[in-house]
Specification:
This protein has about 325 residues and is of the alpha+beta class. It is built from eight helices and 16 strands. It has a seven-stranded mixed sheet.
Length: about 325
Amino acid sequence: MILRIRGIYATALPRFFLDRGFKVALPSESIAGRFDGSPAFDVFQAPDVQILDLDSKQGILALGEEEALEELLAQVKESFFDVVTRRKAKDVLEIEFPLLSKSRLDEVRKTVLPTLPLHHRLKIIASDQVDAVERILLPHHPELGESMSRDMERELIWDRYERGREIAIEHVKPEGRVLNLSEGDVVEADFAGKRLVLKRSGFKGRDKYDGLGIPKQEGDYAVSEIREGDWYYRHTYFRAQGERIGCYYNINTPVEFYPDRIRYVDLEIDVVQFQNGMVEMVDEVELGKRFEQGYISAALRKKAICEASGLSVALRGV
């Protein structure tokens, strides 16, 4: 099968697909040069699938015949554990790369060009700055790649989490809807521990708290604690006077931090802890539906259930 690939994934994805016997058509001169004139490139044949960046840069849009897209999809799902796939039409496939998938693509790109850790996430934030560091500095000092990436991550993201600053929450549903939860003011930003604490109020949506079933009241607020790498994050809800009314643990792909927001893909299943300490796992049926609809893999579904089950046991103190 022949692919044409454009966008910020146009080094990692050609390497990934070339290694699996695909060909790449109509490459740009710079892309072709990175692969030393590989015979798997063809400037004359029309591609079976065209791959472009999503507008959000959080993944790709693949356009092609249904059979070709199915073949491409099988390779992606086999190799990217947390990938989320959305069939928009017979000839249109949307693929989102959450945190672990981006990390995997960083490693693939590194086999072709000098590549910073967090390359693809940092490219979404400051593409030209990343390009300059990788082109000018990194080739001469590969041993400094980790520290360069860490310095850039601190400068572009964590230094902007000033106390009191408002941070958005992009709660992405498996089918692609982006729910913008109520924003939070930064209470604590710990770069060393990759931990962010937000205070949130002015809740949007329903009159009761999801899972808890408790009515919302004027003056209520939540403290949301987020840590990179975790498969969940916690909202603790309080009345205006500080009385704790319950906790909600959202199960999701590990959170990605951006200068003005956090982002993750919601995995539907959640864990709630009531004021009396009782713990309950909710929405497992919704997770099953998303698996049956093809948005997530069996492995990702299993991971979500394991995380929710393990968290439930820990909270019960069993």
